[in-house]
Specification:
Blueprint lengths: L17 H38 L5 H53 L3 H4 L4 H43 L1 H22 L2 H24 L1 H6 L3 H53 L5 H15 L5 H22 L5 E3 L14 E8 L3 E8 L4 E5 L6 H8 L7 E6 L2 E5 L2 E3 L5 E4 L8 E2 H5 L8 H10 L3 H6 L7 E2 L8 H13 L5 E5 L7 H12 L4 E5 L11 E7 L2 E5 L2
Parallel strand pairs: 1-7, 4-12, 4-13, 8-11, 11-12
Antiparallel strand pairs: 2-3, 2-5, 5-6, 6-7, 9-10, 13-14
Helix pairs in contact: 1-2, 1-4, 1-9, 2-4, 4-5, 4-6, 4-10, 5-8, 5-10, 6-8, 6-10, 8-9, 8-10
Length: 561
């Protein structure tokens, strides 16, 4: 049962350093088996000495003390060894789980960072939260608490069964049969879990998506007086999740109950078999005490089988969802040294036979260095998509784009171009963190002189003075503790700190008052590179050669005003 999906796992468990942890867990299982065999031997020795003392009254007090007390004294170091083995097992298991999850998390995040944005938009924030929280936790639980425990438990059982087979094949057969029954019950009952787990995941994802969305749109809810409606929605979704969780609890409870029943049945069968062996004088009553001690120590981990099956079923579903995400399209980015365009003209663009599905048919265009392109078009024609493609965020379907004679984007491939191209768009907002971190996000090597110059040119001084800690003040997610106009000025400053050759502006004038617009207009008039501007309202009046483009019917039309 536990090996059926291993070929399809997102990241193999048995790679690299994890092989050491897996091997150590097997060794710990063997050592644990030897330890409990030693303890059962001490129990047999103790009862043998008691029986001998009852039959032989000529034992001296000193001799009887040694015979009876020594096994009990040795129990103390034996119990310490067993405790240390369990401690080592837990530490090794957590090392295994965390090492595995770090690799999977980085794999997921790397895929997210290079994901095709159009494909990534199919996944809601709630679904992405499930990938990075619930699914990763499901993988960790299986590896650290399921697989690790299974390795130790099976290693222990195999060693004990071998020893039992060597001493009494009948007892070994009874224990082995009971284990087969336990595994069969776990397999049968555990097969009912996936449906329940999928229901829980579905309702949890819906609830997470609802809460995440309402947090971001709380103002909208309050503006339309829909507070109680949203509370009722969350209440319904919470009860659906509650019901699904209870259904899963019935199945897991049945697992635990069946294993408890199997444990009791195994104890009874072993006791009956051992009693028969005593009658036939194959073993002594002291051996029965040792066998029951061994059985108790052996069957205790068996109760964990229910939890292990639960972890396994959750792992399969989590792994399936992660694989589905990893199969989503990625941008083909040629990672390597970023093209250096220093010393050449700044912002000359050449496009040859480019096309963007649903946005732009095969087209050619040239933009001279330092020109200002004013791009217009109806809503939905793809102006923003065109800017994102020029910025190297979205791929072309065909053709090639060059910036200052250096290929940047071509035929489904995107070369790292962000060093020389900066995009200012409402879709590329501010991040949580300090104002300084946001300003220097794309250029972490700026010096104070450059920073002061940009702050002055974008007139950020009033914002910095108003914030309690100046540049070190924390911005909320999306910069929502700032006005829309202030966010635009900060985003422009962030872009200019890159010293780009091409500046792409998407609705930069939106939500700007006349004073802020004039500041930005003055700032951009000093920009030496090429500017492509998308706007439905005001056109920037720059001291540059300006061309007017209209994106219509998937073609670029140039016109004169």
């Amino acid at each position: 049962m536990w090996l059926t999906a291993l070929p399809a796992i997102s990241t193999p468990v048995w790679q690299g350093k994890r092989q050491v942890y897996l091997t150590s867990l097997v060794i710990l299982g063997v050592l644990h088996a030897l330890a409990i065999l030693f303890v059962s031997g001490l129990v047999a020795e103790f009862f043998d000495s008691i029986n001998a003392l009852e039959k032989n009254t000529e034992y001296t007090l000193h001799h009887s003390f040694i015979q009876t007390a020594l096994p009990m004294i040795l129990m103390l170091p034996a119990s310490i060894v067993i405790a240390l083995l369990r401690w080592a097992e837990r530490v090794s298991a957590e090392h295994l789980g965390q090492n595995y999850i770090v690799q999977v998390r980085l794999k997921l995040f790397r895929h997210l960072m290079f994901a095709d944005l159009r494909a990534a938009q199919r996944f809601s924030h709630g679904a992405m939260a499930l990938r990075f929280v619930t699914d990763l936790n499901g993988l960790r639980q299986w590896v650290a608490l399921g697989l690790a425990r299974l390795l130790v438990m099976f290693s222990t059982i195999i060693v004990v069964l071998v020893v039992l087979a060597w001493q009494q094949i009948l007892l070994m057969s009874v224990v082995f049969l009971s284990l087969l029954i336990a595994v069969s019950l776990c397999t049968f009952i555990g097969s009912k879990l996936p449906r329940a787990i999928r229901s829980i995941r579905k309702f949890r994802a819906r609830l997470a998506a609802t809460v995440t969305d309402r947090i971001n749109t709380a103002t909208t809810v309050q503006a339309y007086n829909q507070e109680y409606r949203e509370i009722r929605r969350v209440n319904r979704q919470s009860h659906s999740l509650y019901d699904a969780t209870i259904k899963r609890a019935y199945i897991v409870g049945a697992l635990y109950a069946s294993l408890e029943a199997t444990t009791v049945l195994t104890t009874a069968l072993v006791l009956i078999a051992a009693s028969q062996l005593v009658i036939e004088k194959h073993i002594s009553s002291a051996d029965i005490a040792a066998i029951m001690t061994l059985l108790g120590l052996l069957l205790t981990p068996l109760r964990d089988m229910g939890r292990i099956v639960d972890y396994w079923q959750q792992w399969k579903i989590s792994n399936e969802k992660i694989l589905r995400f990893l199969d989503s399209p990625r941008r083909n980015i040629k990672i390597g040294k970023k093209p250096s365009l220093e010393g050449t003209s700044t912002g000359q663009i050449s496009a040859r036979k480019i096309s963007i599905e649903g946005i732009l048919k095969i087209s050619d265009f040239e933009i001279k260095a330092g020109e200002h392109i004013f791009l217009e078009g109806k809503n939905g024609t793809g102006k923003t998509t065109l800017l994102f493609t020029l910025a190297g965020i979205l791929p072309l379907n065909t053709g090639q784009i060059e910036l200052d004679n250096t290929p940047l984007v071509s035929d489904h491939n995107i070369r790292v171009s962000q060093k020389n191209i900066a995009l200012v768009s409402p879709d590329i907002g501010l991040m949580r963190g300090s104002l300084l971190r946001n300003l220097s996000y794309a250029n972490t090597h700026i010096n104070q002189t450059e920073l002061d110059s940009i702050i002055r040119r974008c007139n950020l001084g009033d914002i910095i003075e108003r914030l309690p800690r100046g540049l070190d003040s924390k911005l909320s997610e999306g910069g929502k503790n700032l006005s829309l106009g202030e966010r635009k000025r900060i985003m422009l400053a962030r872009a200019l700190l890159m010293n780009p050759h091409l500046l792409l502006l998407d609705e930069l004038d939106a939500h700007l008052d006349a004073h802020s617009f004039k500041i930005i207009e003055h700032t951009l008039s000093q920009f030496p590179g090429t500017i492509i501007e998308v706007s439905h309202q005001r056109k920037l009046n720059l001291q540059k050669s300006t061309r007017h483009w209209l994106l219509q019917e998937q073609k670029i039309h140039e016109y004169n005003t």
